[in-house]
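= Paired protein data =
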Amino acid sequence: MSDSPSSAGATRLAFSPEELRRVEAVDRLAVDPAVGLNELLAMLDDPSWSVRRAVVAALAASGDVAVAPLIQVLRDRRDSEARIAAVVDTLAASMGNADTGLEALAHEVSDPAVLADVAQILGRRRTSSGVATLVALTRAVDDNVAVAAIEALGRIGGRAAVDSLVATVNSGNFFRTFPAIDVLGRSGDPRAVAPLTALLEQPHYVAEAARALGRTGDIGAVAPLMRLLLRAGAATVRVAAIALKDLLQRHRERFGNDEAIAAAIRLAGGDAGVARQLTRALTEGDAAEQAAICFLLGESGDPAAATALTARLDASSPEVAGAATAALRRLGPQADEQILVGLRTGDVAQRCALLPLVARAAAAPAVVACLGDGDPEVRALACDALARMGVTSVVGALFPLLADANPRVAFAATAAIQSLGSHETETLARAALGSPDARVRRAAVRILGYFGAPTMVADVLGALSDEDERVRESAIQALPFLDDPRALETLLAAARDPSERTRAAAMRSLGQSSGDLRVSSFLLRGLSDQDAWVRYYACQALGKLAFAPATEAIVRLLHDPAGQVRVAAVEALSCMPGEPAIEALKIALHDADGDVRRTAIIGLGVAKRDETLPLMMEAAVSSDAATRLVALSAFGGFRAPEVLRALHDAASDEDESVRTAAIGFLAATPGIAATQTLTELLRETTNREPIIEALSLLSEGRVAGLQAALETSDDELSAALTSALTRLHRPDATAVLLGAMTMPNVAARKAAASALGARVNQGGPAGKAALAALTKAAHEDPESEVRQICSLLLARLAG
């Protein structure tokens, strides 16, 4: 439950006076639940939902003291629907150990209503200890109880109940089969494929069974779904396409590689009838279905598919257009002819979609023609394509675009010219310096400065006399990259220029220079310039150069009237050694400007001083999400246990960006303790994919930490841990998977077997070792479920 007595108090204005009085009574009773327990229980059927919510929050937070009385109410006091609903909510959210009492209740009573409530509560609590009880309830005589138990297993995961779910699917009971199909598919267990495949022959189950096969992520589901494509009508083809796309994505998430699934789809899709079926079904359906069909057409290898895909490049749905583009890319050379046709005759949307696909030099004439297109995005993408293709002979066609009215096009043309080089470039750039258009001259200076050849120095220096200030600024920015003594002399002269903009550009460029004492002298002078941006760039440059003698002068800028200067001062102090810089950063933590405070936090993090850690810990629980985010980034380099705890807590932050950052920082933190923290999060959350992805990034202690967690993991956690190990693609991670086949933990052995089955498909010595481990377990493992899974995987590999 997200609600609490305090949160209820936050919405007091929404209550009537009488409701407010009762909520205040709940707050008082919640102070000592052991004393006020009976009164709180009596309020579970309060006529006001808002009051009941406060009661639920109070009882859930009271822990074990309320569990037994609540279970008694659930069993014996069923005369009020409002009371029962409140009890179910409370037990589901209880911080106490409610599972044991609920499991005992399930064995004591026969009332279907009570048993259905028990199943619902156990499912909402998502604890593996209740799985055995739920499995037993799936066999209950009453359909409502069985369905509630099946749905509860779906909340927990279902991996530990595959045999029961298979029996339910095979039972022929329509009421129970439908929910069991979904849970069985989500289990990800290889044993789910055969019973779900059988249901494809039954018209009233075919669509749901196809979706469930997609959710398995199992390579064994490819063949039956591809067969369905050949014989089904258009509506079912679209369902099968969605399932196959889902299948590939889930396999990639579990095992970090989708090549085996893609290869299986290509193998099964070799029949020309598959491409025809898909093309026929592509004309209808929603965006997701069309995108899935485009994906399959891309895997078909049929050149005829390129025509249908090109027609979808200008689809109103970005999802469909993107899928068609990706599919054409996968078709590769087989789509080249259609791509060229689209570039010549297609509309703007098609050309925009096709240009990123062009890679062959033979397409250069068609791409050059796009440089004159009426749409600026097409022109910019054509520049990008020519840069990627590396055809140096087209450089001359790019120079006219330096005068393009669209900045995106002019920038793309400049970048393409710099990328391609060519012996013509210097001559063309020098000629561009004489253009009457300042934009062209500015781009020419950038190009000449980029190459920085000795023959170009005079041209860059000459641009410093240009009548346009932006051209002169570009020349100043190029000076640090010229290997010529005149460049520094000119830069120092620019630092004394009457123009504020020129001085600011000079200060910025001086930050790229070193080795001459005059550089630091001019930058120190820039700290007191009358223009704020000159002070800003001077401060920033001194920080880059880590010029410690400037610390005192930079500290004074913490009180500068310009906010950007104060931020630059804090950034510069972050780079300075010594106590004065640290003390100044501590003071900046209390600045009225939030940007200054956050920059100070980063600075202290860069300094990595243990005595500053409490200040960053305080910032990590700030009411401002941006400050919390910055504080997390400042933790890098600290190895204190409290840092891991702070990152753990931040992974459940109300702000998504903070949650994402916390998981990312944990992923990058070395040591077994960080891996243990991530596995703790796996146990606590239902959104596991970001955490599995984090565990799939290699760091010190990662593999050892995953191995330790496998020793005690349940079915759901074992699947996540073996997924992370597989996605690491490392010999030591594969060794842990092989070792897991001999662990006492049955859940670990089952999950490792599925992971090793995928590893066999990747071949090599590790694949042979995985095959040997599966063969041994299929004959010798003491647990029948493990033997069954291994035998099934081996049969599939042999086929």
